[in-house]
Design goal:
CATH superfamily: Fumarylacetoacetase-like, C-terminal domain
Number of helices: 3
Protein name: 4-hydroxyphenylacetate isomerase
Keywords: Isomerase, Metal-binding
GO molecular function: 5-carboxymethyl-2-hydroxymuconate delta-isomerase activity; 5-oxopent-3-ene-1,2,5-tricarboxylate decarboxylase activity; metal ion binding
InterPro entries: Fumarylacetoacetase-like_C, Fumarylacetoacetase_C_sf, HPA_isomer/decarb_N
Helix content: under 10%
Strand content: 35-45%
Number of domains: 1
Oligomer: single chain
Length: 262
Amino acid sequence: MKAMMRYNGQFFLQEVYVDSTKQLITRGEETTPIEQLVAHPPVSGTIYGTLLNYKGELEALGSAVYESPYQQPPKAPILYIKPVNTINYHQASIPMPKEEDTLQIGAALAVVIGKKASNVSKEEVQNYILGYTIANDVSIPHSSVYRPAIKEKAQDGFCPIGPWIVDQKEVANPDDLDITVHINGELKQQQTTRNLIRPVAELIAEVTSFMTLFEGDTLLVGVPESPPLARNGDIVRITIAGIGSLENQVVITKQQVKENTI
């Protein structure tokens, strides 16, 4: 299927064809396993995350959503930013602060914006999407959703993304994609975008009703409830059906073995 990626020191996205199951890249007459390339982050703009957009995630809060300070479930998308220092890439290490024992793994479908989007209707959203990729919205475990979790979510290397962007025309329905997380080869989470509270088109329409998304920006549609935990040395693999797989190893900061260059 048609995709775009940056690899082996290239500055600009290159059009390639990928086999998302076998993780193969075809360029002209040459087919190469992803492991033989350095797949740089395929995004360049601001990365926005979305909180509480999975049904199970909101249900897990139970009656807490009716308590102070908000006293009701959210009526609009709850957004946060994964700043540029968090951007990481396929097969790079995820640096775990030495004072932490575990990191939360946040498997997220990432929607890459193809052109300036403001006040976009649900019916027009597909015209503004460049394509889809995979993000690992890594966090230090925390429970509060009432304050910006900057320390917990914005550490260096806390947003591996890629390895490519699948052309939006290749994804028939982004609201019907199975997601799995394996840690050291063991299945730890199984979810689907069918469980989104706001499907992709609705989410983008709501977001662009109050803010502009620009070409190259990326919107993470949400992280499912009960994110699995990874420890030092664990190899994490997130797979989204029809998109591909994103793999990284957690390495405690003082033992980090691979530089997370962008």
